[in-house]
Known about the structure:
Elements: E1 3-11, E2 14-21, E3 34-40, E4 49-57, E5 63-68, E6 80-86, E7 99-100, E8 104-112, H1 124-127, E9 130-131, E10 136-140, E11 146-151, E12 157-163, E13 168-173, E14 192-200, E15 203-207, E16 229-230, E17 237-238, E18 246-251, E19 262-265, E20 268-269, H2 280-289, E21 306-310, E22 342-344, E23 357-360, E24 376-379, E25 390-392, E26 397-399, E27 401-404, E28 412-414, E29 420-422, E30 425-426
Parallel strand pairs: 8-19, 20-21, 21-23, 22-24, 23-26, 24-27, 25-28, 26-29, 27-30
Antiparallel strand pairs: 1-2, 2-5, 3-4, 3-6, 6-7, 8-9, 8-12, 10-11, 10-13, 13-18, 14-15, 14-19, 16-17
Amino acid sequence: DSPVFTSATLSGNTLTLAGYVGSAASQSTFANATVDFYVSDNSSANGAGQTWLGTLTADASGNFSGTLTGVAGLTAGSSRLTGVATDGSGNSSEFGVNYLVAKVGIAGTVFEDVNYGGGAGRSLAASSGAPVSGARVELFDSSGAYVSATSTAVDGSYSFSALNPSTNYHVRVVSSSVLSTRSGASASLLGVQTYRTSTSAGVVSAVTDFVGGTNPAVADSGNAGAGISLNTSTYVFSGMSGTAHAVAPVGVGTSGATGVDFGFNFSTVVNTNDSGPGSLRQAITNANTLGGDASLAQVGRTAAVDNIVFMLPNGTTGSGGSLGLAAGGLRAALNTFSGGVATLSPATALPTVSTAMVIDAQAQPGWTAAANAPVVKIAATAGSLAGNGFTVSAGATVRGFSIVGFSSSAGVSITGAGATVQGSWIGLTEAGTRAIRATP
């Protein structure tokens, strides 16, 4: 007839309890019993009350639940509780079995959104995402200090346990550890984040406008470890250089947090960098190398072929383009455009397009059919590049670029059959003016 705990979590000085009186839940024999709760002395399985904490009253079924405020002397994960039940006739039970004040956990999944076609990032369920195993996931505390790391399992899942309830943490995925699930994947084929979450008091919310990660123009850092911390607002590291690319704030609440997921894609261009994750050079390399094209079905795109997706920040929330993308993939605070165009200036020739793919800059948010002018420009670095804008040796499509400055070579060189070049201004700037010298 003693109290039995089913849960006990601590949030600051508030203790949340649930359980029942008797040998099983929902016994009306113990209706309206008074239950006194104590810190146990841990001297035996049932223990004995050492410090009184407060009282709850069981309901008509003998079950109890509620909170005790202003409690002191408890530590989640080590303190144990016990209790005494008293019925309406004043009969009291023995002390109940000791119960550990619980810690909580964080869990989620790292996945590849293979068929992302642009726009708002998509959740694991919405994208039918492919789980990524072996990805490194790191935990940082509320101050940004590194705590620990783990790796995703075969099903893409990860977890951190024995955490303090009602505490803020930050979870980071090391982007270089995320390998594509497609054939041909390797550590040199780098992807970008398309989806993450934000968690407050254990409630997980989708974050769909961080396509490209925290700062799409800055590559992710390597593994963190002891002595490393990050700024919890900017996610810039201390103790090592760089910015965390894929990181999510997690307020665990009293019951922990699940569904703290991260999505990645390997076909998306999110910056004007010459190389590295999110660059056009990396996207072409990925498309040349990764297999499984026949099963691709990127949303709004040509099926069974790899489509390079342009999601360059342009000072808007990412709507429009030739696909009429809905807003929500980009943040208006970020902008890689100047004068209405994003300029990519390769220092060396871009990789030859050696497999069938679609490189469509008209699908970039901000392009309009009414203006029908390029919003992405490939401009040879002044006086330093001997090569073509694009070299296509397979049946690829190149669409919607201004390609200038390749005065000693070609804007687009086609060396194989079946290639298509459309809507591109070769030798003309985005303004329609002639550009024959190797200058942007």
